[in-house]
Structures are given as C-alpha cells and as structure tokens.
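Summary for the lay section of the report: proteins are chains of building blocks that fold into shapes. Here we show the chain for HAT C-terminal dimerisation domain-containing protein and then a coded description of the shape we predicted for it.
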Amino acid sequence: MFPCLGMLARQVLSVPVSTVAVEREFSAGGNILTDYRSCLNAESLETLVCNQDWLLARRRAQESSYQLESEHYMNATTDASPSSEE
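The coded shape description reads as follows.
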C-alpha cells in the first residue's frame, strides 16, 4: 500500500549485521563478569575470556572431527552395501 514507506522503514529500522557480534560479546561478558566475580582485575577477566574461547573452539573442532568421521563411516557403509539393481 505504501511501498516507499516500507522501503524507508526497512532501511532505517533494520539492525546492521555488524552490531550483532558486538551485542553477543557484551552478553558473553555479562555471563563472565557476575556480581560474584566483580572484583576481578582486568588481567584475570581477560584470562577467563580467553580460556573460555579456547575451550569452546576446542569443543567445536572435536564436534567437527566427529561429524567428519561419522560421515566417512556412513559413506563407507553405503558404498559397501550390495546394489539392488542386479
């Protein structure tokens, strides 16, 4: 009904993709810096954030490896099964 108004609203009210990562980091920071840990100095807080990032990256790498192994196994069992077209 109002195409120009719709286009304008999409351009003005849309959230840029670049701000999503920043918001995610603030959210992660809130999960680390709680009231219980509020007396941590900057170096300790940085160490916690880095350790968490390394652990998550390691977990993602392991999950990716397990997925590749299972796909390889599934392909091998599919290729080894007898053909029903004989």
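Put simply, here is one thing we learned. The mean pLDDT is 72.
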